[in-house]
Design a protein that fits this description.
The chain is of the alpha/beta class and 256 residues long. The protein has two domains: 11-113, no CATH class; 129-255, Trna Endonuclease, Chain: A, domain 1 (3-Layer(aba) Sandwich). The protein contains eleven helices and five strands; from the N terminus they run ααααααααβββααβαβ. It has helices spanning 11-24, 27-36, 45-55, 66-74, 80-90, 98-113, 129-138, 152-163, 204-211, 214-221, 236-248; strands at residues 168-173, 181-186, 194-199, 225-229, 252-255.
């Protein structure tokens, strides 16, 4: 995603993360690490850890590169307890499974490095597309979904943690008595809120079916509608066609 203009490195956060990552790296991982930064891989584990701490560019790397580099490092830690330790070290909740902790760590990086603004006190009128959209864009996929429904549970959990249980609803009818439901509604269920519709079409016929109800969604939400496109099963031309038709309707599209 494009970097916002307010990015600023957080030296304390970066140092804490580096110290934790280095302290739990195994011998082979440290070998790769010291070689990667042009240092000697000989010596004890403690000596190699000291070389990484003294020579790693991680604490001073450009803000635009820091989240992706952190994701690379976090891939080492497959056990939930490792991420629990990182959560504790940077002062955030350790609740949930590995994936929930992983997202929470990356969200905290977003907050502290300027990618995200904390939503503050949530009220019926404070939830707008400008507040919600950055969190939809920042939402990380632990793995590419095989089916559209695979996207729903972690996304719901993420949005609920950010905006609160009372303000996140799934499969909400767009009007009283309507059979058409929006995948996610963020806000008071009887008020405008922000509608989020997820699409993972696999063919031209799927594309047409996905486009069919968009006018009804647009009529309900106006410019408070976001469409999340999972393009894994489409070719480039199909993606362009789908996005162009939504943009012509005045609908914002986020490609994951």
């Amino acid at each position: 995603m494009p970097a916002p203009p307010t990015l600023a490195p957080d030296p304390a956060l970066r140092s804490t993360l580096l110290e934790y990552l280095v302290s739990y790296a195994t011998g082979p991982e440290l070998n790769d690490w010291v070689k990667g930064i042009g240092q000697d891989a000989k010596g004890t584990i403690e000596e190699r850890r000291a070389r990484v701490l003294a020579n790693s560019k991680y604490p001073s790397m450009p803000a635009e590169e820091f989240p992706q580099q952190t994701l690379h490092y976090l891939d080492i830690y497959s056990a939930a307890e490792h991420l629990s330790g990182i959560c504790e070290a940077i002062g955030i909740s350790r609740e949930g499974n590995r994936e929930a902790r992983w997202r929470r760590i990356m969200r905290e990086i977003g907050f502290r490095e300027g990618w995200l603004s904390k939503p503050g006190t949530i009220t019926d009128t404070s939830i707008t597309p400008s507040i919600v959209r950055p969190f939809v864009e920042w939402h990380l996929l632990a793995k590419r979904p095989e089916y559209e429904k695979d996207f729903y549970p972690p996304f719901f959990e993420d949005m609920e943690e950010i905006f609160g249980h009372a303000y996140v609803h799934d499969q909400l009818p767009i009007a009283f008595g309507s059979t058409l439901k929006v995948d996610f509604h963020v806000g008071h269920p009887q008020r405008e809120g922000v509608g989020i519709e997820v699409k993972m079409p696999a063919s031209n016929s799927d594309l047409q079916r996905a486009l069919g109800p968009m006018d009804q969604y647009r009529a309900r939400y106006r410019d408070h509608l976001l469409v999340v496109l999972l393009p894994d099963l489409l070719n480039k031309a199909q993606v362009t066609l789908f996005v162009d038709q939504l943009v012509e309707k005045g609908i914002s599209v986020i490609i994951k």
